[in-house]
Amino acid sequence: MARRYDSRTTIFSPEGRLYQVEYAMEAISHAGTVIGVLSKDGIVLAAERQATSNLLEQSLDNEKIYEMNNNVVAGVAGHAADANILINQSRATAQRYLLKYDSPMPVEQLVRRLCDLKQGYTQYGGLRPFGVSFLCAGWDSTFGFQLYQSDPAGNYSSWKAACIGENYSNAQSILKQEYKDEDKEETGPNAPKMVGAQMTMDDALKLTCQVLSKTIDTAKLSSKKLEFATITLKDGKPYIHIYTSDEIDEVLKKYESVIKPADSQ
Q: Are residues 65 and 74 in contact, defined by beta-carbon separation less than 8 angstroms?
């Protein structure tokens, strides 16, 4: 049945499905893992770099994490060429907004513009969907730190912790179990009014390393296969830091206790 309705993105199947869009989402599920974790102090992004050969010269630029604006950084899963087009479009959109209004573009507004472009490629004949998903981490003065996930259909949603790419379902299960949510009231006559705390940046980095160790198919995590980035506030302004190889190795060594169990399996 699918063969009759998957030749164009503009044709709905009798079940109301757009097969070309579903095929694009399937392509993303085979891409390198990207994880985002929101904390009260900032956001952590981590991505799996899929190296094809040891002889391949490592690029000076990241291949999975990109700075979209001064207040937004994104991790991508899917076709790199498609991601490059969308990243460049988003950067141009953010700069036009800055030129017109003399202020950084709000995070959700930038994500919406990106998703509008992706949605357009599912609606017109002769086009194919962009085979890439984004995890966008950003900060603005209205809503603070925000983490958004988008898909090839042009949908986007806000998350406290999310994963895209390979083994995303397993990663989401771990994130759901281990993520420290808002403070909750403890029951009991002698219990304090509030217990627990929101995620700190250290908690977010630790959780990210834990999830990576259980979802990436490798004997040992190393900086050769990973990219890390954080967005925090510095002097009241958003500060994006993309980690070097040495800094990634330091993070992995610091949280070795949550990684070791996966290495020993």
A: yes
Residue 242, SS3?
strand
Asked whether the predicted pLDDT for residue 70 surpasses 50, the reply is yes
Exposed, middle or buried: residue 46 (CB in 10 Å: 0-12, 13-18, 19+)? buried
Task: Give mean pLDDT, residues 236-253.
Answer: 93
d(CA 18, CA 12): 5
* pLDDT score of 6: 67
Q: Can you say how many angstroms the Cα of residue 26 is from the centroid of all Cα atoms in its chain?
A: 17
pLDDT digits (tens, 9 = 90+) for 3-44: 666 666 677 888 878 888 888 889 898 899 999 999 999 999
Strand partners of residue 134: 76, 150
Length of the chain: 265
Distance of CA 232 to the CA centre of its chain: 16
What lies within 8 Å, CB to CB, of 117 at 6+ separation is: 86, 89, 154
Rg of the chain, C-alpha, whole Å: 20
* Two structure tokens written together for 119: 């949605």
User: Which amino acid belongs to residue 87?
Assistant: I
210: left (phi over 0), alpha (psi -120 to 50) or beta: alpha
